[in-house]
Design brief:
Elements: E1 15-18, E2 23-26, E3 30-32, E4 37-39, H1 44-67, H2 69-72, H3 78-109, H4 113-118, H5 127-135
Antiparallel strand pairs: 1-2, 3-4
The structure holds zinc ion (2 copies).
One zinc ion binds at residues 4, 6-7, 9, 17, 24.
Length: 150
Amino acid sequence: MAECGICHRAKPSRYYHCRHCNHCIYRLDHHCNFVGNCLGQHNSKVYVHLLLNALFHAIAETAVIAYHYASLLQFNNAHALFTLTLLPTLFALYESTRLLRAFHTTLKRNQTLVESYKRVRGPKTSLLSAMESYFGKKSLWWLVPTFESH
Ligand SMILES: [Zn+2]
Ligand SMILES: [Zn+2]
């Protein structure tokens, strides 16, 4: 079995080294500075739930701000207040959508972000198989972020 050139531990196929954590991670996608951890095989399900939660909250907050738009305009500094409230929700909408699309690409290609840089990928597989490999075989449990059914 190959050995990691940096941490010198055994490095099976599809393990990649994270310089921030100084560990080799199975199916490492990237080191996420928002959560302060690597994103790999074993925490992708929690990560996707985090993104979906962020997306739904951003949609709800944007709707609330839009609903109260008229009352916000009654303040003296309405433009600043509106920008302060709307910009974070628009950023959350954009980032959660962008990262969910990126994860969808990972599933479709069976290729993590690190693997796309290295120009390698896992074997061709269906979208359902790729989802099962990350979230487990029992699709009902996909809704529970902390349950692993591998
Ligand atoms: Zn390593
Ligand atoms: Zn890391």
